[in-house]
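Following the same procedure, sequence and fold were stored together, as reproduced here:

>
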Amino acid sequence: MSRTIAVLGATGVYGRHLIPRLTRAGYAVRALVRRPEVAGFARACGADVRAADIFDRASLCAALDGCDVGMNLATSLPGPSGRGDFAANDHLRREGTPTWVAAAQECGVKRILQQSIAMVNGNGQDWADEHTAFAGAQNELATRAIDAALSMEETVRAANVDWLILRGGLFYGPGTGFDEDWLARAKAGTLRLPGDGEDFVSLVHIADMANATLAAIERWPSRRAINVVDDEPVQWRDLFDYVAALANAAPPTAGGRLGFPSFRVRNTAARDLLKWEPFYRTYRQGLSR
């Protein structure tokens, strides 16, 4: 079993849930971050913090030296906190990923694991799996984000090292900000359905994403892209009606901004290949308070 794992993007919410699981499982973890001074949580979990930038090959090589596995969790998609930017995220995926892969190859990293998004299989109202082609989105920014994610995946697939891609659903749970934002807007009466609310979203609780990643490291189904989502993709109307009920608020009305493309994705491959199943099988379990 590989023992030394580098995690790029270690201070993000995904990394904060993953790193304690990796160290508890006995792995030596290197947290690769741009600002080591803000990586106190990683240090507290026992990780070795190293300064590295996804656009700086030399810093990546220095940080990756001697690692068995390199994980790229770096992202800059905008979220409820206001941080992140579509253009910055596209740049990170299109320009940063080749630098990351080249550094991993140069340093002799045996395996790389890449975070991606299950939206790349979005097929509107229809069920989708890892082989379903993206059907497009009404939002130009979302379409560009999907294109950048696919470009990132192609870079990883072409790498001269063993690879694995985990396509996560829409994260929710502690630290993500999404469920807190939905509840706050429901209480304030400002929660709106995206469009008519009929589009699907495939969710995954952030704890389940971290558990699936640990399972992927331990089983390593080589050179596969795997969707990690819960058991019940949901239409935005049903999801937000449930959020409103939790907030003792009126159901939201239609007409909100269309953001993510509709994606209704199965988790069959993750269950079969990773021997994983979500603890929070549906949004109802994950959001209950």
Notes: Residues 86-107 form the longest helix (22 residues). Residues 4-171+205-230+265-276 form a domain with the Rossmann fold fold (CATH 3.40.50.720).
